Amino acid sequence: MADRDFLARRFEESREHLRGVAYRMLGSLSEADDAVQEAWLRLDRSDSEAIDDLRRWLTVVVSRICLDMLRVRRAQLDDYVGTWLPEPVVHGVEAATAEDDAVLADSVGLALLVVLEILNPLERLAFVLHDVFNVSFDEIARVIDRTPAAARQLASRARRRVQGAAPSPDTDRAAQKRIVEAFLAAARAGDFDALVAMLAPDVVMRTDGGGRGPLARPPLVGIEAVAGQFRRNGPRYAKLGRPVVVNGAVGVLVGPAHDPIAVVGFTIANGLITAIDLIGDPDKLRHIFVD
User: Structural domains in the chain?
Assistant: First the structure.
């Protein structure tokens, strides 16, 4: 029992790291927690004395678990209506403590998670492990049962696709907040011209209602389509919105703080909104608790 307690303490020391790996792999906090729990079960059944580097061993194990989960989800999403969007991480717009600041600094942007969805599971694993967590290609090769050269190619291909699809967002949170608040005000007023002035020419709006309901629709692309959507529906819903931090950037929570109707993520580049991701899937909003 003492040995098991020691092993459990060692595991807990790596839990947040493993959760970070799993969330970047899966884009879902609930699934990430499932993957981490499964990693613990596998550790508990293993010969822990034969493990040289526990953190590295656990990273490999949780990556394999996530790879299997991604493959299953890919098959399930064939009939998904609308855009599958990640499960958001939401905080109050002002970090109250140093711990909150650390969490926000480590946040992975919603826009990046959306882009990662275009990668196949092997590309996503190679990119996340190497480019985000600095895992060697030799180690990645063992996870995916490929050669190190093949792992390097997967990561390189993924990197090109990510860089080609993900804009470099503005990082000034105060500037983000001003733009989001101005957009909310324009949406509340149904002010089409003000909405247009804040949108990039190729702006995209993606919605996720869990594969059903009015949010289960293809993305809207372009200023006219996106501004028109907010001019029609903004006066009704924007009055329920308030700024929050969504995956490290300023976004909007719509509805009660502990029972939201939706969470909206904004990607802002060069002072203009380039992407709006509206998550209304109740399953992805269940964990949100904002003071």
Answer: 2-79+118-165 (1.20.140.160), 173-285 (3.10.450.50)
Contact 253, 280 (CB under 8 A): no
Tokens of 41: 């079960």
Q: Which two tokens stand for residue 161?
A: 């696709």
Query: Rounded to an integer, what distance in angstroms lies between the CA atom of residue 87 and that of residue 212?
Result: 16
Name the residue type at position 279: I
**Overall pTM > 0.70:** yes
Per-position DSSP letters for 130-196, written without gaps between them: IIIT---HHHHHHHHTS-HHHHHHHHHHHHHHHHHHS------HHHHHHHHHHHHHHHHHT-HHHHH
Which residue type, as a one-letter code, is found at position 245?
V
Distances (CA, A) of 266 to 17, 95, 220: 26, 18, 14
The rounded average pLDDT for each run of 10 residues, N- to C-terminus, in the chain (291 residues) is 76 93 93 96 84 89 95 85 91 61 58 90 95 92 94 96 81 93 95 96 94 90 96 91 93 92 95 96 88 68
The string of DSSP letters for 17-37 reads HHHHHHHHHHS-HHHHHHHHH
Q: Please give the Cα distance from 256 to 96 (Å, whole number).
A: 20
